[in-house]
Amino acid sequence: MMSQPADLLLRHLRLASPDGVQSVDLAVTAGRWSHVGAPGSYAGAAAATYDAGGALALPGLIDVHTHFREPGGEHKGTYASESRAAAAGGVTTVLTMPNTKPFTNSRATLDRVRELARDSLIDVGFQFMADGTNLAEMEAVAGTVPAFKLYLDRTTGIDSPLADPERLGALLATGLPFVAHAEGDTLDSLLNLHRRYGTGWLHIGHVALAREVEALRAARAAGQDVSGEASPHHLFLDEDDARRLGALGDMRPTLKSAADVAGLWAGLADGTLEAIATDHAPHLLAEKQGDPPPPGVPGLQTMLPLLLDAVAAGRLDLPALVRLTSAWPAQRFRLADKGAVRVGSHADLVLVDPNARVTITNEEQLTKPGWTPFAGRQVRGRVLRTLRRGAWVYADGQTVGAGGGEEVRVAP
Predict the structure, then answer these.
(1) Is the pTM of this model over 0.70?
(2) DSSP H/E element including 135
(3) Chain centroid to CA 8
(4) Catalytic residue list contains 279
(5) 122 and 243 in a common domain
């Protein structure tokens, strides 16, 4: 009896993983990897074959910190528009933030967001807001969302009852997974509360200061279950760039000193920071030129080229890139069947040319606002093709198809 043919056979790839780079052939059946083996090892039939010609491949990137603006900010970006930028950047899964209008802090709003996300070209997970008054709603969605978001700093523009340490400590004691926007002294206070009351994992978004890296390093050494992420704009831009860019370099946290940038790279090198995530936050150029300009910058399409350039410059290696952008995010946020190229997992992949010399331009950006703070920057690294659950969603400079993205399942 003949076995079922694969839907797609990918030949002659150099696949990067946290363990290194190896030559492989891959087969896809029903959206999942059905074969991962040495070149020439697949003996079955395939409905379609793609010869990668030795191109470098990485697991599809997972961006755990994005703002897709729906509901309430559709003029800035939608699941359709921003997922196109993600696909062009090799990102196959995103987690979106709950500071929507209205906030995603109830089951009713989460259901609405899930409907809107059906327009996404890539897979999506949703972080749920913890506002200090909605514990019953949080408990009702626990296990279906990957994390709960705490907005603690005045820079977020969100007023929250969580300024009350007793109420925040009670939340940390629930054992639910939390992601926090907490800067400087606020981070110090949060880590102290977590040490006293925390019974679960706490992740800090967009760490920007060297002193914040030190605070996380000390907390981890003391046995606290805490982690942190860095954003590309804080890794590749500093306060000198903020002066050059003006409003286009305005974000929260703000861009910091060169010494702080060096502290972030040190945190990535020693494992204190375990993820790189964009904090993708689209705003129209007209809005950024207003007074005051809204903080935030797009980043989904430029993250991988910037990181490939860092590899070319010797600041990062390929195993670390894969660990920071796919393997660790999938494992820690419990994203089922994501983050690795192995039989049975979702067939998410990005093909890149790590040697291509590219100048980043505004014109090529697929995010709805159509600009990037990295315009004019020269990098080594180009995204060639992106595969999401076995289907091409980006190929040769164009997105492919529309919609079709699915909600990621949170593993037990």
Answers:
(1) yes
(2) helix 135-141
(3) 27
(4) yes
(5) yes
